[in-house]
User: Which sequence fits this backbone?
């Protein structure tokens, strides 16, 4: 396994490259569909306190902030957190340097908790989801998004990681069933991004619409939503 400090350094080098990808025609489309799915399942409301675990450069955080929610962004990379803070401008946003497996917050202090594409880098997925549940208020919801093992996108990233040292070298790609199994509560599973990186941006929307209409579980972006039952600790 890549040592935590080495993994953090890999992420530290990502801010510019990561943000640049979402400015390309296909990258912007990916962000649009991924954001729509995250917001649909998270359903943030004005005044709520939301924890964004693995917030990175704030690509998805900003859309949550526009709902009027108060957001705390947590990440292992300080450069990424600083970039997210710059983007947040006048929104109610705070940053915290921390680890998903040991969240520095008391139990039940957030209305909603979201984590987008952080689980790929956590071997103890069940422990990570357990932490997200722990800090969520009873009656609140947890949304976790990861890269789908059943998608060609994951296969390509894994192949790239085998050729040279990248953040994907030891990434863990999970299937819908594997993501579902990380929590004992019943969850809702959906996927997005049913087109490929090299596909024509003009035809990609049709491919995305068809994939959603068919309810395919092979979309590259895999998202689960759980509710924390009032009886849970």
Assistant:
């Amino acid at each position: 396994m890549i040592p935590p400090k080495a993994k953090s350094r890999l992420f530290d080098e990502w801010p510019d490259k990561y943000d640049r990808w979402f400015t390309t025609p296909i990258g912007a489309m990916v962000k649009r569909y991924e954001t729509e799915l995250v917001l649909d399942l998270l359903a943030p409301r004005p005044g709520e306190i939301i924890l964004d675990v693995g917030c990175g450069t704030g690509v998805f955080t900003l859309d949550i902030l526009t709902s009027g929610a108060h957001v705390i962004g947590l990440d292992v990379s300080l450069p990424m957190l600083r970039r997210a803070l710059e983007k947040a401008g006048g929104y109610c946003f705070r940053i915290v340097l921390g680890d998903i497996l040991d969240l520095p917050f008391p139990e039940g202090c957030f209305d909603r908790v979201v984590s987008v594409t952080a689980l790929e880098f956590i071997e103890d997925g069940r422990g990570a989801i357990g932490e997200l549940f722990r800090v969520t208020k009873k009656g609140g919801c947890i949304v976790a998004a990861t890269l789908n093992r059943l998608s060609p996108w994951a296969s390509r990233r894994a192949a790239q990681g085998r050729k040279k040292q990248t953040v994907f070298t030891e990434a863990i790609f999970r299937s819908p069933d594997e993501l579902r199994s990380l929590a004992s509560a019943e969850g809702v599973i959906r996927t997005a991004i049913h087109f490929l990186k090299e596909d024509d941006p003009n035809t990609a929307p049709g491919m995305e619409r068809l994939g959603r209409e068919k309810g395919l579980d092979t979309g590259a972006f895999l998202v689960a939503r759980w509710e924390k039952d009032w009886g849970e600790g």
